[in-house]
From TrEMBL:
Organism: Paradevosia tibetensis
Top-rank taxon: Bacteria
Domain TfoX N-terminal per the UniProt entry, residue ranges: 26-112
Protein name stated in the entry: TfoX/Sxy family protein
Entry-linked Pfam families: TfoX_N
């Protein structure tokens, strides 16, 4: 990721910044990934499509194929992502117990990328 694409720390909460730092470390050698401030956290975009992100509270926001949501919900810490009181189709939040280790976080990112790579570039 290029330094110019990095979101300033003051723009997000400390919890979100901590999670964003972990994601950055995993995606560090991926110049095609761009960061964007969104939803009170940081989104990591692949070809203009959101791959993963952070919530303001520091959870992982995971983008999954709509037809694989039930499968993904079986993973530790996964829950349907809501915007206000409405569920967000194809987006899950993943709590700490599902991403305690960097390997677990990297696995979620890879899981999300499997779907996001099928989307047309924006």
């Amino acid at each position: 990721m290029s330094a110019t694409a990095t979101v300033e720390k003051s723009d997000v909460s400390a919890a979100s910044d901590e999670m964003a730092g972990r994601i950055r470390a995993i995606l560090a050698d991926r110049p095609e990934i761009v960061e964007k401030k969104m939803f009170g956290g940081v989104g990591f975009m692949l070809n203009g499509n959101m791959l993963v992100g952070t919530t303001a509270k520091g959870a992982l926001m995971a983008r999954v194929a709509p037809d694989r949501v039930e499968e993904a919900l079986a993973r530790p810490g996964a829950a349907i992502m809501h915007m206000g009181d409405k569920p967000m189709k194809g987006f899950l939040s993943v709590a700490d117990q599902g991403i305690e280790t960097d390997d677990a976080l990297a696995d979620w990112i890879a899981y999300c990328e499997t779907f996001v790579r099928t989307l047309p570039p924006k």
